[in-house]
Write a structure and sequence with these properties.
Jelly Rolls
Length: about 850
């Protein structure tokens, strides 16, 4: 069954189950996982059995594919973690990488890739790890193999003189594991005719090509570049006479047109070919070189944009000979063909004209590390850039006056060669937006595709990256599964991420769709281009560097079987004030028989608001989620949602609350707290001046928090006309001495029957150790009857020092009362 979306066709693979009803186990209400698809690819125009492996796949219903060309005729469960699918691959299916997901009755899996080639597939057969004993294979096949630790695989092919022989490998690109392959072509004397570790066009993968020098056998060697390997290091090795260019000029064209391109870097020589371009832009589009020897296994990325092409001509190594761009905007294409080369393009611009200037080189598979700048004709540079988007260059240029300018380009390290191709696009500045769902868990695709149980909800954060416009944004969706709705508030101008809740009615049919999420300006007169883009990062290297990732241009949404609980937020009737706190009530509705604990997580916090997780205990129906607002929290009404998860069956279930409203408001009053001091065992007072900011009814309750141990006080009422509060502090003899900070007041006002908690003021309390008693104080009766022994003289001397301190203190007090000099006399 085929549907359409805005950008590209969506192929939904419906499986016909040929299984007796009695053999089907009941679906488990939890989310499935897809870890691998085996084999890792197949030949177009064929039908084959593909194995999907993971967890909780026993109730698989459908395979979702992000591109057309596939039909599933049968799904056969093997066990809860595995099923087999019979897949027909169309004869015109696009070559290369394709993205798959599995929809089960209970959810949707992460994305995994599957590769389509033009050649028949054979398996590697051991033993083939010795040069003298290679596996014999015919030309023009794809070998599916594995490299184990310190393994080297050898293959032998018979060739004729003058034939092109190419060996291209898909290894890192398969997205299985960190596998950096090495490929070489050798003759029977073990002389290496061509070898490749990393090819810029293929990332960490490799390609080796030769023109066969003589009739005979030739050996293909495959290994890990560091002689590593493991059972996960699978590869697809394409061996044949097909062309393998490494560059293309021009590297883009207008959608819907036919363009003649020149393929560069093929071992048999450069050649031209006409390509019919699709009518709609597609970031996955690539061009495939083809001749009598076949078609290259993977294409060269090709830009689709409505710009006229300009190709460099002649010696444009200086301003005087610069290639002329007839008019801008335009796209210029060329090659830094030798080390030290500079390319120059001359164009005319009017004063104030502004362009985004992008160099596409590494993003298209070129080895070029570009440095790009615009200069006055025969003058100095105005603007330039080295690395802006990876090694590619970008800047924005505004013409300071109407005249001719020169766009220049060279390699950062002054390198060059026949495959150092580039494309520079000079485009007008216009508003655009990219919509995405951010990663929720590091190194995982968890909750980036969403399953919404029937009669329930699921929330996600949606991010909008604005370019060259501001203001509020309205989110939308096209091609939602039948019956599903999307609830989202208008995105405020100062935010780029808000929560969105998808809801499925209890009557909805199980199903799924790849959905376009869109962003439009709140003002319909302002037109912006928007598209969805989300990357699945499949392979990480050292220091968490992404080695291979795949872009998805639509969001996967499915309606799943019901689950035994749902949750909702009880919307607060009172506001959360700045420098205040609140307990948000979360209520669970359980189906009969489900008593498990439910963990609740926040998904969105407005600026200045913090929220903590909570758990609804086993057998209970509610819990409270703590919320706090900073002093600078943005005041307004906000929409939020929370996520909830519980263990059901043999895996986790995720649902969400509705979009609920709560308000962040200014505080009702402010406190100015004076410092206080006392001695251990002596009471004191803490004074607070009250400034009323928002009128309130009734009496607030005020407590002092943060007091040190053994210091207590009582709660005081605060009326709307109270100007000052005085707290009586009881200080115990055992209260710790020192300077005690972070003491504040907590004031609670009741609004609509709910507490509004303020954390206001701030001060410190100093507690001193009492001075020793005076020396002339009457001694106890028992001590007076008995004179002190002579041995007590050292103690008398120590007491005299303390006595001196006490006398000095008394003199200060007397002088202060008399208005004299408080400096003690010596």
């Amino acid at each position: 069954m085929m549907n359409s979306s805005i950008r590209q066709p969506f192929c939904r693979l419906i499986a016909a189950f040929v299984i007796a009803a009695a053999s089907v186990s009941p679906a488990l209400a939890n989310w499935p996982q897809l870890n691998a698809i085996q084999p890792r690819g197949g030949q177009r125009g064929t039908e084959q059995i593909v194995t999907f492996q993971g967890a909780r796949l026993g109730d698989a219903k459908e395979v979702l594919c992000y591109s057309p060309g596939f039909t599933v005729t049968k799904i056969e469960p093997v066990n809860d973690g595995t099923f087999k699918a019979t897949i027909k691959v169309a004869a015109d299916c696009r070559l290369g990488e394709h993205a798959f997901r599995v929809r089960t009755a209970s959810g949707v899996t992460e994305m995994r890739t599957w590769w389509v080639g033009a050649l028949p597939v054979i398996d590697e057969k051991e033993p083939n790890s010795e040069f003298a004993n290679p596996q014999k294979i015919p030309l023009n096949v794809t070998v599916h193999g594995v490299i184990d630790n310190e393994d080297v695989d050898y293959f032998v092919v018979e060739c004729k003189k003058g034939q092109r022989l190419t060996a291209e490998i898909e290894a890192m690109r398969l997205g299985n594991t960190l596998f950096d392959p090495y490929v070489a072509i050798l003759d029977t004397k073990r002389f290496e005719l061509a070898a490749s570790d990393d090819a810029p066009l293929l990332g960490q993968d490799s390609v080796a090509s030769i023109v066969v020098p003589a009739d005979g056998n030739y050996i293909i060697q495959v290994r890990d570049s560091a002689y590593g390997g493991n059972g996960g290091c699978q590869y697809r090795l394409h061996v044949g006479t097909f062309p393998r260019p490494l560059a293309v000029i021009p590297a883009g064209g207008k959608p819907g047109t036919e363009v003649e391109v020149k393929f560069i870097g093929d071992v048999a020589g450069d050649f031209t070919q006409k390509i019919k371009l699709p009518s709609t832009p597609d970031s996955h589009f690539a061009v495939f070189a083809q001749d009598a020897g076949g078609v290259c296994p993977s294409g060269i990325p090709f830009r689709l944009i409505d710009l006229p092409n300009v190709v460099e001509s002649g010696d444009n190594s200086n301003h005087a000979n610069a290639t002329v761009i007839p008019q801008v905007p335009a796209a210029v294409n060329g090659v830094i063909s030798k080390p030290g080369e500079f390319d120059h393009f001359r164009f005319h611009a009017k004063k104030g004209q502004t362009f985004d200037v992008h160099c596409y080189a590494r993003r298209l598979g070129s080895p070029l590390d570009s440095v790009m700048y615009i200069s006055h004709l025969n003058g100095g540079a105005i603007v330039g850039n080295d690395d802006a988007i990876g090694p590619d260059s970008y800047f924005r240029f505004t013409a300071p006056e109407e005249k001719d300018y020169v766009l220049s380009l060279h390699d950062h390290l002054k390198k060059g060669g026949p495959t150092y191709f580039y494309r520079i696009e000079m485009t007008p500045v216009g508003p655009a937006a990219t919509v995405s769902i951010p990663r929720m868990v590091q190194f995982s695709q968890e909750r980036q595709a969403l399953a919404i149980p029937r009669g329930n909800r699921m929330a996600a954060l949606v991010t909008v990256a604005r370019r060259d416009f501001g203001g509020e944004v309205v989110l939308g969706a096209t091609n939602l599964p039948a019956g599903m709705t999307m609830n989202a508030e208008t995105m405020p101008a100062n935010l780029d991420t808000i929560p969105v809740v998808f809801e499925a009615p209890a009557s909805a049919q199980l199903g799924g769709a790849l959905t376009d999420l869109t962003a439009t300006h709140v003002d319909p007169k302002q037109k912006i281009q928007s598209g969805f883009s989300q990357f699945a990062e499949l392979i990480y290297g050292m220091n968490q560097v992404v080695m291979w990732k795949t872009e998805m241009q639509r969001e996967a949404l499915v309606i799943a079987e019901e689950v035994p609980f749902s949750i909702k937020i009880v919307e607060p009737k009172a506001p959360l004030v700045q420098n205040g706190s609140m307990n948000l009530k979360i209520v669970a509705e359980r189906k009969q028989g489900f008593k498990g604990a439910i963990t609740v997580y926040p998904i969105f916090n407005p600026p200045g608001v913090g929220t903590g997780a909570t758990t609804i205990p086993e057998g209970k129906d509610e819990a409270f989620m703590p919320m706090n607002a900073a002093g600078n929290a943005q005041c307004r009404k906000w929409k939020t949602a929370v996520l909830a998860t519980a263990s059901v069956g043999n895996g986790p279930v995720w649902v969400s609350s509705q979009l609920a409203t709560f308000e962040v408001a200014p505080p009702f009053f402010a406190f100015q707290m004076e410092r206080a001091s006392s001695e251990q065992g002596k009471n004191t007072e803490l004074f607070c001046k009250v400034q009323h900011l928002t009128p309130f009814d009734g009496a607030a309750k005020v407590n002092v928090l943060g007091l040190p141990p053994k210091v207590t006080t009582s709660e005081l009422p605060l009326m709307k006309d109270t100007k000052e509060l005085s707290f009586k502090l009881t200080v115990d003899k055992a209260s710790p001495a020192g300077q005690h900070r972070n003491i504040f007041c907590q004031a609670i006002v009741m609004v609509n029957g709910e507490p509004v908690v303020h954390n206001v003021g701030g001060t410190e309390l100093r507690i001193d150790v009492p001075l020793p008693p005076k020396p002339n104080a009457p001694a106890p009766a028992q001590a007076a009857a008995k004179p002190a022994p002579a041995a007590a003289k050292p103690a008398e001397k120590r007491l005299t020092r303390l006595e001196k301190l006490r006398l000095e203190q008394e003199e200060r007090e007397k002088a202060a009362k008399a208005g004299g000099d408080p400096t003690p006399k010596k």
